[in-house]
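PROTEIN FOLDING TASK:
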Amino acid sequence: MSVQIVLVHGIRTSATMWRSQLAFLREQGIPAVAVDLPGHGSRMAEDFTLHEALHTIDVAVRDAATRGPVLLVGHSMGGLLCLAYVGGADAPRVAGLIAASCTSLPRGAGLAAYRAIARAVDRLPDRGMWITARILEATIPEETRSDFAAGGYALDTQDTALRTLAALDLATAVSRIDVPLWFVNGQWDQLRVNEALFRRLAPHADLIVVPRTTHLVTAMRPQIFNAVLRLAIATIERDARPAAEDAGRSAGPER
C-alpha cells in the first residue's frame, strides 16, 4: 500500500496553494489530495468553524487511510489544525505529519496584534490586495506566484478563523503526538515565535529551517519543500515495512 498525502492550506488561501506539490507528487506517482477548509476556496460561502475544519481533515484522512498510510501536511492555519487533529484525545490514522509555518500559539497579545493588523489592511482600498500582490511579486518565483490566489482569497473569513484558533489547546496536542513529525519554517517567518516551545513539547520532531524564505515557504522554495515531502514519505515507508512483514509472518503459509 502506497503512502497517501493529505494537504491542508493556510488562512485566506485554498487548496490551490499546493499546486506545485501536487504536480511533484503526480510525477512521483504518489497519491495526494488537497482539501478546501470551510469558508475558503470552493467553500467560500460557508461559515468557518473549528468543528467543520477538523471534520474536513478527518474525512480526508479516513478516506486516504483505506488505501495506505497517511502523511498529513498543513501550512500555517492548516498546520495548527493538523497539529490539533493528530494530537487529539483519540489518535487518528495518521502515520506522519509535516507542520509548516505554524510554530506559534494563536493566543494572547500576539494573536490580538495579528488580528488588528489584518483588520487594518482589510479597510484599505481594494482590501489591501495591492499590498498582497506586491509582496508576492517581490518574494515568490513566477512559477508559483499565482497559486495562493488561484482559488480566491477568503477575506471575509479571516478574522473569524483567527479568533476561533484561540480555542485550540495546542500545547497539549503537540505533546501527545508520537508519529514522525517535521516542523518546517522559513528563516524569516514571523510565526517562529514559539519554535523552541514546540520543540520541547515534541522532542522527537525534526525542525527544518529553510534559508532565505518567509512564511510562504512552500511557494518560495518549492523544491526544498518537495524534498521534505520525499523525506517524510521515505520515513513512513521504512516504518511500515516491518509491520507488513510481521503481518505476513503472523498470517502463516497458505494451505
